Every structure is written in structure tokens, then in C-alpha cells.
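Annex B. Sample input.
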Amino acid sequence: MQNELITDATLVSNYIKGEEPALEVLIKRHKQRIYSFIYSKVLDKDIAEDIFQDTFIKVIKTLKRGKYNEEGKFLPWVMRISHNLVIDHFRRNNRMPKFSNSGDFNIFSVLSDTALDAERTLIKMQVESDVRKLIEELPADQKEVLVMRMYNDMSFKEISDKTGVSINTALGRMRYALINMRKIIDKHNIILTN
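Annex B, continued. Sample output.
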């Protein structure tokens, strides 16, 4: 039977039974619609691609756990997941996330998933280690602002007072720190995922 004639529900059922290619058909079938929706909200190709991938990571995890029960409504379900991830993206980027002041930098203290299995815990530890290494590669002035903001939860006003530079300079250093971290990530092909 040709793929176009197989319903989403059948493909989902086949994937759950262990037929990995069924998921590929579903992704190809709905990629344009889901990606276009995400892009229309974030207006950035890279961010849209990241959220699209995160959407299907969540879809796979849910299907593998046997938690899917939207029989025959696969696309609306996936669109809801992507919509929630877009909202999460804006929440995270509305302002810099605050981190718990545990002394040790933990990028995942802002993620609200408490049910971590051993594999994901290991991945998170690896990524945290990667992030610490990235921070070490930054110029001293940028690293200082980033650490004060992220480790110590200081406001830009407090950073300005402590470093003796204007708030705008502190903001600029933070911005360049994030830009440079992105460049370092790209240069080393580091994949930060959770």
C-alpha cells in the first residue's frame, strides 16, 4: 500500500508496534505545516528548526511511553505540542532565566521536568559540563557579567555597581557573551540538548 493511503492513526499504531519507518512517513507528511506554523511565530529559521526537532523528540517520547491516546487526531496533537514549545521558547527568552543560587551553575534548574531517567540525567550533566567549558572560553569582561547574572542572580543594576561600568555596557557584555557562546557552539559543533 502506498504511504499516502495509510492514515495517520495507522502509521502511529505501526510505529508504536516497532515499525520505525512509519514515523518518518508521518514527519514527511506534516513537516511543512508544522514547520510553517512554528516559523510564523518565531520568525527565525534556526529557532524554528530547533523547536520542530524538539516537537518530534516529545512526540517520540510520548509514543514510546504509550501515552498517546489522540486516536485519529495526530496532526492537531502535534500542533499543540509545537505550540506549547513555542510558548516555552518565548517564556525562556522574555528575560534571562534566573538560576537557583546553588554555587554550581545549573542551566537545567529552569527546566521543570522532575521525572528524569538515568540516561537523561547523564546527558544533562554532560551538557552542563559543556556549558561551563563554553563560559571559560569567553573574554574576561563578558564572562564576569555572565557569571554574575547567571550564577549569582544579580540584576544589571547590581552588575553595573559592582563592575563600575554603565548598565548599557553590562547589557552589551551579556549580549556579546551570548553571541560568542553561540559562535563557540557552532565552531565546535556542540549539540546542546536535553
